[in-house]
Amino acid sequence: MSISRRAVLGGLAGASVLAAACYSLFRRPRADGHPNILLITADDLGLQLGCYGDSVNVTPHIDRLASSGIRFQHAYVTHGSCSPSRASILTGLYSHQHGMDGLAHLGYTLKPGLPTLFSVLHEAGYRTGLIGKNHVSGGLRGCDIEVPLSRLEAGKGVGRFAEVCRELFDQRDPRPFFLMVNYTDPHTPFEREVSGVPQQPVNPGDVSPFPFQKLDAPRLRERIAGYYNNLKRFDVGVGWLLEELAASGKAADTLVILTSDQGPPFARSKTTVYEAGLKVPLILRWPGKSAPGRVIEELVSMVDLFPTLCEIAGVQEASDNLDGRSLAPFLSGQPARWRRYLFAEFTSHGVQSFYPRRSVRDERYKLIVNLLAPRGNPARSMDGNGSWEVSRDAVYEGTQVRAAFDRYANPPKVELYDLMADPYEFVDLGDSPELEEVRRRLAAALQAWREKTGDPLLNETYLAEMTAHHDQLVRKGSRRYEGL
């Protein structure tokens, strides 16, 4: 007998009901005295920045932002795919709660009526706007101004971003603003330069293999160089944007946040729950409030941004059911009791890449549960990067690299990694008897989180139905998701 998604959600604490309860009694404040908020996102940016220790890339504008604000060393997206991750930023919910389990242009969408940063801050008296990439279907309620990519040279003209934002900064409006500025860089396609940016492009001979891959081949070095050039263009764009903010005279009253939606578009990163796919930069600068140059070591998640901005905007939450926690105490350097565990997931990217996984990590260890194992991962290539094919070269036979890519393609039910000894997850300790207690503890924490947040895939019948539904769509040759 078929089981509906609605029935599953109702039976597992009801994610829709839970979400509604989280926002049921927002109190609308006066916007007077609250800061402007400028939220900047990159597309597919991991920790490939100078301020995060990258030795290849020169990112002076982002590095300057980090030195004048606070930098989070362990910030994680909730889902290694663009639309679900961005939806979590906007809602403060995980993808299995907000319903957007894959890409917006492929048919996945937010559950109707969910509050977002746009709707909540608009109600709080903010002037709200989205500049650039949206990619969250159903997420613009409460957004006063939208400037789509079509007006920004398809997202590659970083100068146009700055020009549009200058016009918005200069508007004579007594309300504070909340602007979300979403660049498409460093997403593919990779260009050496666009309109002269960057002025000094990176060449294939300048780069090294990514440490989360340890693969070396001319075509991969060419792609890595292209990725860095897109990233250098993003850095220039951020510089121009912050120059316009300073010229408007509003920089001193503006909280600036810079982050990303997932890691680089290479295998073992994007569309996974490995560290390279989930770990992203997070920089906050609030003049007069944030301690310049401070580095935060605690585990933070993108679901923390929603409660953070609500608190800073003066919006009082009447419920503590949200999993995210406000980062505001870190801005002033106040000590904060923080989380022990951090959770993430992957369900789908497109129809063909449906392969649900859930993960939990603590200060040292990380556990991954692959819900469809021993069935293999259908998405071995990522944006055509060729890494899987290179990993088949004879030089990698018998190495940890080959084993890691084999596991990427055909993962076991459970993976366990010691991130202190093995930060890029090449050695699976899932069968290690010495870590049995660690494995049990993390598995219990993951199970409790899935139950608390109403993960519908806890229901084995529903998981089987969803898998069969995606299989049917693949057989039909469909690229778009058709909801159950």
Detailed description of the structure:
This protein has 2 domains: 17-331, Alkaline Phosphatase, subunit A, CATH 3.40.720.10; 344-475, no CATH class. Helix 7 packs parallel to helix 8. The chain contains 15 helices and 13 strands. Strands 1, 2, 3, 4, 5, 6, 7, 8 and 9 form a 9-stranded mixed β-sheet that branches. Strands 10-11-12-13 form a 4-stranded antiparallel β-sheet, covered by helices on one side. The longest helix has 30 residues, at 218-247. The chain is globular, with a radius of gyration of 22 Å. The protein has 484 residues and is an alpha/beta fold.
The CATH superfamily of the largest domain is known as Alkaline Phosphatase, subunit A
Total domains, how many? Answer: 2
C-alpha termini separation: 14 Å
Helical/strand content category: alpha/beta
Percent of residues in beta strands?
5-15%
| CATH architecture call of the largest domain | 3-Layer(aba) Sandwich
